[in-house]
């Protein structure tokens, strides 16, 4: 039996992948949207309060925004194919997308795979028990056994402050340590953190400094993110492929913004549609 050839496969159902999928569907293409999680939303479910995405009448929690993204897919009749892509091969003009136990064939491929957290040095990791180390808050917010504790957050950017706000609602005490003398965050977020009685920010501190002085039940690292695309094996050079696209945070290689990811997804969908229309004319 001949394998079905899909016009477009999108890997990753975060904001970038979802916006690309819906736009392609509206143009009459039937994209296949894959994610290793069963639901759409990507990193968004970790956001305490999204305030900068146009169209929101008021700040919206990331879990709720993720749910809306899933509803958006449903109303556009797009299902997520659950699976982790580990290998993509090029054969002739087709891409073979390998999932556990199956292979999809496609003409166009969109990587909307986002980022993974940067990890601390081995020396820093030796200071903490491995089962107490976390990089995202969403799983902890769902686990009541881990609530009402004293936690440490390492990092001086917006993600670190955002994590603190999420955890402040469920934890007893939160300490943020920042290596330098200021945090790289917008003022609204910073003021909100400073207004919380159970959050303390310590500047010019290392992990070693605080671990020697205080006990923590868990430690969250928010020390930057990097593209996760390198984890997928490819037998071709992505930079010269005309029908392979990288969008969203995976493209910038760091933590970005929902709006940028959505715009990227739309832009690539438009390019794919234009190519398809041109091919039909030829
Ligand atoms: C704490 C926090 C707060 C934030 N707050 C805001 C905010 O207020 N406003 C704002 O604009 N932005 C915010 N962001 C940033 C925003 O979440 C990201 O910029 C956005 O989610 C990037 O979208 P993306 O689609 O590129 O990637 P992601 O959202 O990371 O989605 C990538 C998807 O790809 C899937 N995937 C990865 N690898 C594979 C694979 N091999 N196979 C199958 N699936 C795979 C993942 O499961 C994931 O669902 C915040 C981020 C964090 C961490």
Description:
There is one protein chain. This protein is α/β, with parallel strands linked by helices and 282 residues long. It has helices at 15-26, 62-75, 122-125, 138-142, 158-168, 187-195, 207-213, 249-252, 258-281, and strands spanning 5-11, 32-35, 80-82, 87-91, 94-99, 102-111, 115-117, 133-134, 150-154, 173-178, 199-203, 218-221, 225-227, 233-234, 244-246. The mean pLDDT is 94. Flavin-adenine dinucleotide (FAD) binds at residues 11-17, 34-37, 42-44, 46-47, 50, 52-53, 84-85, 112-115, 159, 162-163, 228, 232, 248-250, 255-259, 261. Flavin-adenine dinucleotide binds at residues 11-17, 34-37, 42-44, 46-47, 50, 52-53, 84-85, 112-115, 159, 162-163, 228, 232, 248-250, 255-259, 261.
CATH level 1 name of the largest domain: Alpha Beta
CATH architectural group of the largest domain: 3-Layer(bba) Sandwich
Helical region count? 9
Report the uncertain regions: none
Give the CATH H-level superfamily of the largest domain.
FAD/NAD(P)-binding domain
Question: What is the compact description of this entry?
Answer:
With 282 residues, this protein is of the alpha/beta class. It contains 9 helices and 15 strands.
Question: How is the secondary structure organized here?
Answer:
Layout: E1 5-11, H1 15-26, E2 32-35, H2 62-75, E3 80-82, E4 87-91, E5 94-99, E6 102-111, E7 115-117, H3 122-125, E8 133-134, H4 138-142, E9 150-154, H5 158-168, E10 173-178, H6 187-195, E11 199-203, H7 207-213, E12 218-221, E13 225-227, E14 233-234, E15 244-246, H8 249-252, H9 258-281
Parallel strand pairs: 1-2, 1-6, 2-3, 4-14, 6-15, 8-12, 9-10, 9-12, 10-11
Antiparallel strand pairs: 4-5, 5-6, 7-13
The chain binds flavin-adenine dinucleotide.
